[in-house]
């Protein structure tokens, strides 16, 4: 699958595992996704082999048992900032990854066998909600797939910098999950002063989510900082097509005018 093809898909049609493979291969074209595909297929067969539990907690335990207990995939606590922790192929090779990368596996596996599961967006963290029966269950994939209470989720959110913890955490769309996965890498590249790497990542994000206005703005800022003024103008022009907010439209036109003056 090509990156630009992801941007053309309806959100519900995005296969998270295959999309994750596409992103991994963009950085490591020689990487072999066979083990990742084999693992996910094997997990799905194992879940369908016996009578599936109806409750969310029962389903959550099965997911964690396969991914965390049997396969050993858990959070990268010792080298959190390593870019490979956002790489799904590397995750199954190394046995550790970021919360969002691990959550993608849990959500993708649950959906593959017909269960409803969502990744929930917490400040600085991602957890998984598995539905079934009366009450959904919460899992922290970064902590060995441990089941957690809502109170614990609130505690995690507050620790992550959430001043006002919401009554309910918002589920992330497939596209939002992929953008979160790449944003982790882009933020680290920018913090390390690697603007060319950050720009490449924002180029990928605008291919995947071309309607997300904020991505075009950050891409244009990076292009301008690197002296790519023509590319920055193109990004700002693309941004105009994604918004109908008068204040933002004026801001974009001002940025375009400033670029024109800098080239005159």
Account of the protein in words:
- The chain has 12 helices and 6 strands.
- By secondary structure, it is an alpha+beta fold.
- The chain has 2 domains: 157 residues, C8orf32 fold (Roll); 53 residues, no CATH class.
- A 4-stranded antiparallel beta sheet has the order 3-4-5-6, sandwiched between helices. A two-stranded parallel ribbon has the order 1-2.
- Strand 1, helix 5 and strand 2 form a beta-alpha-beta unit.
- Helix 11 runs antiparallel to helix 12.
- It is elongated, with a radius of gyration of 20 Å.
How many whole angstroms does the radius of gyration measure? 20 Å
Characterize the biggest β-sheet: 4 strands, antiparallel
- Average per-residue pLDDT, rounded, comes to 92
The name CATH uses for the topology of the largest domain is C8orf32 fold
Number of helices: 12
CATH architecture of the largest domain: Roll
The gross shape turns out to be: elongated
The helical percent reads: 55-70%
Give the structural class: alpha+beta
Q: Give, in order, the helices and strands.
A: HHHHEHEHEEEEHHHHHH
Report strand order across the widest sheet: 3-4-5-6
Count all strands and give the number: 6
Gap between N and C termini:
42 Å
Number of domains: 2
The percent range for strand residues is 5-15%
Low-pLDDT segments: none
User: Which CATH top level class of the largest domain fits?
Assistant: Alpha Beta
Features:
two-stranded parallel sheet; C8orf32 fold; 264 residues; alpha+beta; elongated; four-stranded antiparallel beta sheet
